[in-house]
Structures are given as C-alpha cells and as structure tokens.
Amino acid sequence: MIHAKIDAKILPVVLWMVGTLLSFSVMAVSIRELAGALSIFEVLAVRAGLGLAILLAISAVRPKLLRGVTCKHARLYVLRNVVNTRLNMPGPPD
Predict the structure, then answer these.
(1) What dihedral do alpha carbons 87, 88, 93, 94 form, nearest 10°?
(2) Domain extents for the chain?
(3) Terminal Cα-to-Cα distance of the chain (whole angstroms)
(4) pLDDT tens digits for 13-32?
(5) How far apart are CA 58 and CA 81, in angstroms?
(6) Residue with the larger pLDDT of the pair 69 and 91
(7) pLDDT(1) > 60
(8) Which of 38, 61, 69, 70 could make a disulfide contact with 42, Cβ separation 3.0–4.6 Å?
(9) Contact criterion met (CB below 8 Å) for 48 and 36
(10) What percent of the chain has pLDDT over 90?
(11) Cα(41)–Cα(47) distance, rounded to whole angstroms?
(12) What interhelical angle do 2-34 and 40-61 show, nearest 10?
C-alpha cells in the first residue's frame, strides 16, 4: 500500500523532469540553429521572450502559482540581468 502511494507521488515528478529535459534540449538545438542567422544578443532576447511567454501562459492556467512571486529582490535581479547582458555582448573588434 505504501509502495503504491510513493509511486503515485513520483510519477508527476518524473514527468515534470522529462518535460524539463525535453524543453532544455529543444532550446539548445534552437539556439544552435539560430546562431547563424542572429547575433548572440538577439538569441538571448528571443530566449527571454519565450521564457516570459511560457511563464505567463502557465500563470494564466494556474493563477495560484503567482502567489509565490515577489519583488523582494528586484534590485538584485536587475543588476544580475545588466551584468549578464553586458557579459554576453561582443567586445571591440580585433
């Protein structure tokens, strides 16, 4: 009986992880394909836009998930994104 309960709890976790790995793989292949046509900055912008669209779609379906989102560390997020964007920009030409 206990064994069946554990299996029932693990199945959604396994499916979630499989979906996550699949999405990472699709994103990696997509980025490699786009690399020839777009600059790295444009690829990062597309990736961020897709991530935001996915999060908005999930939050539209399950609004309870938004309760955990806070702006407690907003300054740190902005700083991290500015540094990340700058580090991904190409340097001066050689």
Answers:
(1) 70
(2) 2-88
(3) 67
(4) 899 999 999 988 998 888 88
(5) 23
(6) 69
(7) no
(8) 38
(9) no
(10) 16
(11) 10
(12) 150
Amino acid identity at 8: A
- pTM summary value: 0.54
d(CA 56, CA 62): 10
**65-91 burial by CB neighbour count: b if 16+ within 10 A, else e?**
eeeeeeeeeeeeeeeeeeeeeeeeeee
Q: What percent of the residues of the chain are helix, what percent strand, and what percent coil, each to the nearest 5?
A: 80, 0, 20
What is the amino acid identity at position 13? V
Q: For position 43, what pLDDT does the model report?
A: 80
Q: Mean pLDDT, to the nearest integer, of 37-46?
A: 80
Closest CA to 24 of 46, 51, 45: 51
Q: Which amino acid is at 65?
A: L
43's tokens: 């690829």
